[in-house]
Amino acid sequence: MIPSERRDFIYRYVHEYQTASISDLVDLMNVSHMTVRRDIHMLEEEGKVVAISGGVRLNDALRQELPWSEKARLHHLSKRDIGKFASSLVEDGQVVYLDAGTTTFEIARVLGERFNLTIVTNDFSIMQYLMAKSQLNLYHTGGQVDKRNHSCVGNTAAMMLQTLNVDVAFISTSSWDLQHGVSTPHEEKVQIKQTLLNVARRCVLVSDSSKFGKYGMFRVCPLNQLHDIICDDQLPIDVVQRITEQNIKLHLIKTSST
């Protein structure tokens, strides 16, 4: 691997496993301890990771998201089971918004077999998948294209959403916690998510627990502006209690092994 490929590998690896030991990275990439330490140092200078004793962990302050194709490989079973449960909240005849993301794509897989629904999304991968489902009504927001995440963002997309009345909005995120609420490292995503809080009767955050405890530079909303949160069952007990104290419906999904 060239240096940039090694650093990308390390960043992806800690996204999936939260931490990584230097010895494991040495074995996985077949390089020296010194090379791994140098790569970790450069990632740390970029604010992406934090060096710890004998290894590295993801920085709680998220600077950059992985591209769509990389995120799709991570925590797939949790995303799939979250998607199945989320789809059960949708009633026939409703207008449903699916935010850009790999967890919402799993919701689309299930809703794609339903009838009498209108789906709105800013995600090209979701739209492409659902276009083969002739029984559904489909709308795409349009707007500035975010090639990295296969979606549209910015003011134009938000203006389109302002013309709608949405029954259920499934909102994705790369980072959320009790102190900062829902956040993102990318400013252009904020307006879309904040618009949904105004136009949707029910706003549902869908996220696996690996994204909890992270925060981005740009704040979307405190958690108590959401109606529901759907997550896997790996959140700490004290976090579960503090979320439910805010009168948020918290749905913890046990992930299947297959």
Defining traits:
258 residues; alpha/beta; Arc Repressor Mutant, subunit A; Rossmann fold; seven-stranded parallel β-sheet; three-stranded antiparallel β-sheet; 10 helices; 15 strands
Give a quick precis of the structure:
With 258 residues, this protein is an alpha/beta fold. Helices cover 36% and strands 24% of the residues.
Q: What's the topology here?
A:
Layout: H1 3-17, E1 19-21, H2 22-29, H3 33-45, E2 49-52, E3 55-58, H4 68-71, H5 76-87, E4 95-98, H6 102-111, E5 118-121, H7 124-130, E6 137-140, E7 144-146, E8 151-153, H8 155-161, E9 166-171, E10 175-177, E11 181-184, H9 190-199, E12 200-206, E13 218-221, E14 228-232, H10 237-244, E15 249-253
Parallel strand pairs: 4-5, 4-9, 5-6, 9-12, 12-14, 14-15
Antiparallel strand pairs: 1-3, 2-3, 7-8, 10-11, 11-13
Helix pairs in contact: 1-3, 2-3, 5-6, 6-7, 8-9
Q: Tell me the radius of gyration.
A: 19 Å
Distance between the termini: 32 Å
CATH class categorisation of the largest domain: Alpha Beta
Helix and strand run: HEHHEEHHEHEHEEEHEEEHEEEHE
Strand order of the largest sheet: 6-5-4-9-12-14-15
Low-confidence stretches: none
Shape: globular
> Strand tally, please?
15
Mean of all residue-level pLDDT scores:
90
CATH architecture term of the largest domain: 3-Layer(aba) Sandwich
Q: How many DSSP helices?
A: 10
- Domain count: the total is 2
What portion of residues is helical?
25-40%
Walk me through the structure.
By secondary structure, the chain is an alpha/beta fold. Helix content is 36%, strand content 24%. The chain has a 7-stranded parallel sheet, sandwiched between helices. A 3-stranded antiparallel sheet has the order 1-3-2. Strands 10-11-13 form a 3-stranded antiparallel sheet, covered by helices on one side. Helix 2 (22-29) crosses helix 3, helix 5 (76-87) packs across helix 6 and helix 6 (102-111) packs parallel to helix 7 (124-130). It is globular, with a radius of gyration of 19 Å. It comes from Providencia burhodogranariea DSM 19968. Keywords: DNA-binding, Transcription, Transcription regulation. Pfam families: DeoRC, HTH_DeoR.
